[in-house]
Amino acid sequence: MKYLVGETSEGTAVFAVNGENAVNLTALDPAVGSDLMGLISKPGLADSLAEKITSADSVPLSSVTPALPVASPGTIICMGLNYTDHIKEGGYDIPEYPTLFMRGKNSIMAAGQPMVRPACSEKLDYEAELMLIVGKRGRHISEQDALDYVFGYTVFNDGSLRDYQRKTVQWTPGKNFDDTGAIGPFTVTPDELPEGASGLKIESRVGDEILQSSNTANMIWGVQQVIATISEYTTLEPGDLIALGTPPGVGHAKKPNPRWLKPGETVEVEIEGIGICASPVIDEKDAKSKVAAA
Question: pLDDT tens digits for 178-208?
């Protein structure tokens, strides 16, 4: 199933996507709720809605404004250095253990919402990434069982302020500016994709300019390994988000000059079989002006 959490004049709801149309699942059964947590917490709910979907009214996909798939994720864990060529372009050694860091809730926003370049830096970079949504609680999960803990896959743009990322070895400042991590709009269940979402084309672009182009099969640590590794040290909870690293082609590594995102551009991240996460880039002062006007 392909899901979209989004807003209409009737409020925020979960939709089942079929081509350019969508069925409001929340209207079919209020137990679905206003984000994916209802379906995640009630594994049989989606099956019970299957027959209703076929005969239900649909709305144009374009009439739904995307919202976050999970409104308030408990934990957002991100991987760095998971594609060999990206590691080389950044001048790093290939790590023996996955490079992990965390994002806070204020740093993420839904696809379609503006990506904000902060007033203190012009070095806003893009990172196309596959993201998974955890489907059930688990600790010490084996690689063999890891895929059973995936509810679905979505698209992530890990917007990074490179100068602030390098102010500390922990990367935290550069990865946690408000409204720099775009998620969505679609979430696709594992049965609709190859095992572990491997073998999918992943690309970022601005207009006709291709910024990154690779394949999720090129990840050093796949979904199974990442889940097993993270669950060694922490309990994964339903609705947690895990981002799986970016391929080569990021802006800071472009030669002869870095390629930073600029206000007025729209950056797109596309993953085959899942969809496009598009984000208009704006300056922080313009974002503040919009808030003040509201």
Answer: 999 999 999 999 999 999 999 999 999 999 9
User: What are the tokens at 21?
Assistant: 């149309």
Domains of the chain: 2-66 (no CATH), 76-293 (3.90.850.10)
pLDDT, tens digit, 9 for 90 and up, residues 230-252: 999 999 999 999 999 999 999 99
Model-level pTM?
0.96
